[in-house]
Structure formats: structure tokens, C-alpha cells
Specification:
Order of helices and strands: HEHHE
Number of strands: 2
Largest sheet: 2 strands, antiparallel
Strand content: 5-15%
Number of helices: 3
Low-confidence stretches: none
Distance between the termini: 89 Å
Strand order of the largest sheet: 1-2
Shape: elongated
Structural class: mainly alpha
């Protein structure tokens, strides 16, 4: 068996060399991440800034409209937008529930 030990060296040597290189890379990265903060020469300057107490702004409610389709009533629109006919009438003063037209804009929110 000529060259038997060379074949074994190739078979086991390549994975061993790869693991050694990966281990060295991990150790280098890890040592870079765990640097001692006292050895750093960076100087930080801090500044005190007065801040106002946080106020929560009231979210702006955007108006939302819906265009009526053929055969729809205010009741259908109320069900679709999880509201009541009374609320729709309050949002739409002057609307006549018995005189709706196709394409009419109805405020829903």
C-alpha cells in the first residue's frame, strides 16, 4: 500500500485545517467584540439638555366617506362599517334616508 499515509493525511488533514481556521476566526472576532472599555482612548463629552414633559398629541381623526351603490341603504352602510344608522345621520346632517342616490357620498367616520 504505497501512499496510504498520504491519503489518510489528505482525508483528515483538510477538515482539521478548516476547523483550526474557523476557530481562529471566531477567537479573533470575539476578542474584538469584548474589548476592555478602560483601554479605550475615546473621550465622551456629555451635555445636559432640559426637556419638556412629554405630551401625547391627540390623534387626528380623518374623515372617511363611502359612495353608495345600487340598492344600498344607510342600514347596509352601518353594518359594513360597524356603526349605527343614528351615528351615520349625526355625521351627515341634511341627508334624507328615504332619498338616497347611487354614488352619493356618505361620511362614515
Amino acid at each position: 500500500m504505497a501512499g496510504g499515509w498520504q491519503r489518510q493525511a489528505k482525508r483528515y488533514g483538510a477538515p482539521a485545517a478548516f476547523l483550526l481556521a474557523a476557530t481562529i476566526a471566531v477567537l479573533l472576532v470575539r476578542s474584538g467584540l469584548q474589548s476592555d472599555p478602560s483601554s479605550s482612548t475615546t473621550t465622551l463629552r456629555t451635555q445636559t439638555v432640559e426637556t419638556k414633559p412629554a405630551t401625547n398629541p391627540v390623534p387626528v381623526k380623518r374623515r372617511r366617506f363611502y359612495r353608495l351603490r345600487m340598492g344600498e341603504t344607510l342600514s347596509d352602510v352601518a353594518i359594513k362599517f360597524d356603526t349605527t344608522v343614528e351615528q351615520l345621520l349625526a355625521l351627515n346632517p341634511g341627508i334624507q334616508p328615504t332619498n338616497l342616490t347611487v354614488g352619493q357620498r356618505v361620511r362614515v367616520k
